[in-house]
């Protein structure tokens, strides 16, 4: 009903990780190239940081689709794990049948797996999202896993993705050894105003917009200012603005509608 009225096939601004809505802005592309470079050149650790909602989890998933066939990957999305749980999760993602339920046994098994893969010319990557939540002990465990290397190269590449606190955490004196192994760093910034415009247009197009919905330039500026260019917030604000259009039975999003929608949201999610 809401979609019919606005001439859309599906919801353009739902906050899900639907790959068909992917828009790789310059920053997203840069972050992706840094990740791929670190992995291909076997740089050991890669650190990617960015504010909440800038697209980090989205990128982790995109990254896996860009890896070449000689790279095997594991993606850990919930890092609130113990050392053992982390090893289990990694082993499971690589399709290993855990031979041991203790940490040392599993660690040995994973090391053996890494050596086998290296002999076959395979590169191995573990991507860990929300890595700012990893405990110091788990980070230390990860460093030990990354210790394995031949004379020439690292056998496992580890991509740590997280909120800006990750940067501070990795610089703690206790983690000096790990910090020294970070070969690539990248900080994601939010979208600029031109990217916000393209982002909105892209999502409307993918959602099948038939052209009857007008989006004024001032409305785009307002979305940019209210969201600071953070995609998650852009989605929330734009979604609410479309709802307002439906409620008022108008097919034109202007600055006033965006501002009003943002104010309504501010009392709810945006301050959370
Ligand atoms: N490059 C992008 N293209 C399309 N949508 C994106 C992009 N980056 C983020 N989003 C949207 O913003 C939402 C939040 O992104 P997410 O990757 O979860 O951010 P983070 O992990 O940094 O908190 C996603 O659900 C998605 O809808
Ligand atoms: Mg995330």
Give an account of the 3D structure.
- The chain has 272 residues and is α/β, with parallel strands linked by helices.
- It folds into two domains: 2-17 and 191-270, Helicase, Ruva Protein, domain 3, CATH 1.10.8; 26-188, Rossmann fold, CATH 3.40.50.300.
- Helices cover 51% and strands 13% of the residues.
- The chain contains twelve helices and seven strands.
- The chain has helices spanning 2-6, 26-40, 56-66, 83-93, 103-119, 136-146, 165-170, 176-180, 193-206, 217-227, 231-248, 255-270, and strands at 45-50, 71-76, 123-128, 156-162, 182-188, 214-215, 252-253.
- A five-stranded parallel β-sheet has the order 2-3-4-1-5, with helices on both faces. The chain has a two-stranded parallel ribbon with strand order 6-7.
- The longest helix has 18 residues, at 231-248.
- It is elongated.
- The two termini are 30 Å apart.
- The model has no long low-confidence stretch (mean pLDDT 92).
- Bound molecules: adenosine-5'-diphosphate and magnesium ion (MG).
């Amino acid at each position: 009903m809401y979609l019919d009225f606005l001439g859309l096939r599906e919801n353009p601004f739902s906050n899900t990780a639907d790959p068909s809505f992917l828009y790789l802005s310059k920053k997203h592309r840069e972050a992706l190239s840094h990740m791929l470079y670190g992995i291909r050149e076997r740089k050991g650790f890669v650190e990617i940081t960015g504010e909440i909602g800038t697209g980090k989890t989205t990128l982790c998933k995109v990254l896996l689709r860009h890896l070449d066939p000689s790279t095997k990957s594991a993606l850990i999305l919930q890092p609130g794990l113990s050392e053992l749980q982390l090893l289990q999760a990694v082993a499971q993602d690589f399709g290993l049948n855990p031979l041991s339920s203790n940490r040392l046994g599993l660690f040995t098994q994973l090391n053996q797996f890494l050596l086998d893969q290296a002999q076959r010319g395979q590169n191995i990557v573990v991507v860990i999202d929300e890595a700012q939540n990893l405990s110091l002990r788990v980070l230390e465990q990860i460093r030990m896993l990354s210790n394995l290397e031949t004379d020439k190269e690292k056998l496992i590449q580890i991509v740590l993705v997280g909120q800006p606190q990750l940067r501070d955490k990795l610089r703690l004196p206790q983690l000096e050894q790990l910090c020294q192994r970070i070969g690539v760093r990248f900080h994601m910034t939010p979208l600029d105003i031109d990217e916000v415009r393209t982002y909105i247009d892209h999502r409307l197009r993918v959602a099948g917009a038939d052209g009857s919905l007008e989006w004024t330039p001032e409305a785009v500026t307002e979305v940019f200012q209210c969201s600071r260019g953070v995609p998650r917030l852009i989605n929330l604000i734009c979604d609410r603005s479309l709802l307002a259009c439906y409620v008022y039975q108008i097919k034109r999003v202007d600055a006033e509608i965006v501002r009003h929608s943002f104010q309504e949201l501010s009392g709810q999610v945006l301050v959370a």
